[in-house]
Amino acid sequence: VRTHIEESILPPLVALVIAAVVGDVLIIIFGQSPGDVYRQLLEGTWGNAYGFGQVIYKATTLTFTGLAVALGIRAGLFNIGAESQLASGGFLAALAGLAMPAGTPAIIAIVVCLLAAALGGGVVGAVPGVLKARFGASEVIVTIMLNFVVLALLNYIVAAHIHVPETLHTPQMHVGAVPRLAVVSSMFSGSAANMTFLLALAAAAGVWWYLFRTRPGYELRAVGLQPDAAEYGGVGVGRVWATTMALSGLLAGLGGVNYVLGYKHYYEEGFGTGSGFLGIAVALVGRNHPVGVVIAALLFATLSQGGLAVNALVPKQMVDVLTAVVIIAVATAVPEVRRALAAARRSSGIGNRESGIEGSRGRSDSPFPIPDSRP
Amino acid sequence: VIAFLIQTLRIAVPYLFAAAGGIVSERSGIIALTLEGFMLTGAFCAALGSYYSGSPWVGILAGMAGGLLAGLLHALATIRYRADQVVVGIAMNLLAVGVTRFFLRLAFDSSSNSPRVPGFGGTRAGSGVLSSLANPLVWLGLVTMVVIGWLLYRTPFGLRVRAAGEKPEAALSVGVPVRRIRWQAVAVSGVCAALAGSYLALDQHQFTDGMTAGRGFIALAAVIFGKWDPKRVTIACLLFAAAETMQIRLQSLQLVPSQFVEMIPYVLTIVALAGVVGRAVQPAALGKAVD
Asked: What is the dihedral of CA B103, B106, B111, B115, to 10 degrees?
């Protein structure tokens, strides 16, 4: 079990060290002192109520998109469409909020809006899932292409039919707003953090339960490990692909709620730009485990908010560079660490049949593995 | 009509360059999600080179060097270290956006665009026939696809590239250095896509933030829609460019919303993947790492 934990924790740590070094280099190129910049970054995020609240706010969306990507990867599927699933979830939520009359009780209104968001994301996610199950179309390409199609479609609908003149957003929703966290505690005062964060945590718990405690979740992981073996074992692989993509899209769609219900109360063109792609980083660094995803979401939210905090010293774009470096470094370190650990195991004379399947995609790296049989 | 064809050609040039690179990369087994990032890097380096040297030709060389560097980084992660190609591909695009923005601030102290740089052809507004034909990159774009076709089907290198993408184990067993071939293919794709970016920057006489605007993905769509075959991909590029030209020309009439025209390449690609009209089948070993 120890090696599993090492396999999960080491790559992100290695990646963070590499990113810190690259960050130092960039800061020095720009003629600043790394110490000052990093101090500023921490003070501007976890150091005050507004910064902390903004981190929580950004982490909320990233938790949803990270969970969406992670769930897909567990089934061996790559959902690169979180970007458009998020937008379409947010769009339908805003529409639902507009459609209901102003007097609707909050509890009903919020539930309806959440269902609308889930539907919006789920449908967009289901399309690539069904196409893969039915025709074997690569979900990577289909989700990328769908991003462009769905975003163009939403832009058209908003621009042609329901935008407020001179803006790129819809009118304010009549009902369905979610209270800010600042209402509850001064820890978050002034920030956009809202109750959706609790929903994100609940979603993480739900994904954990689904993956590790239910039969469909077990089938999902079986398909991710070895689709052929799963099929032979009586699992309908195509059905699992389609359901997983729909669920993945649903999670991403709920992410749209954070902005629409929790912050602005309208849909705006491009409101979630980048969150879908960052979700890939979050899932990767979180090692596709719900707990890891929440932690990774906080990390990337800190980087993102921190970029704004240090913008006076260095260009905030430095953060984009660091994010990309983290992704590349984790992706590179995962197979390397696995090989190194396997080699270490071999040299210490312990046979482990698992070292034979290195490189197979979507391998489970759950911190709760089946106990292995070595002495 | 001639003006229409010329405008189509101008729009098609970056697609042709990038798609040519995409074909080589994908046929060798490396997924070409990175075209967008390579293009952006190429555009920025070309603008930088042209600005500091005063010559667009140096700009082209700088652009190619930038694309080569990005390609080698991608190869290092995905081939040498066997990292997942999709993950690294997405990250390479993010990296290109971040790096170009960072150095845009550093070099030109601007967060949106570079100053005017020497380029080819006349002013940006003047879409005169002669001025666009005077841009050597237009011609190079047409030639590149022909060269790539020749390279793939008429040379030993091309044979090895195709073998690396279809049956790498078999290729290895007869002594083809699959990983080296893939390194070379990714390098070629980096340079080609960078030329696409250089064309954009030198045609508009400046670099603007995010100026590739999804063109790399349209090129990827063309590669898939054209079934990884240079001739068909060329037709796909021209088709997508013609649709865009139509849209620009008919804009004033408001016949079709521009968003629907934007969708065409992507919808066609999804349809092609789903196999409704002639199934698109990718190289067998696409995305698979080789030990």
From this structure: -90
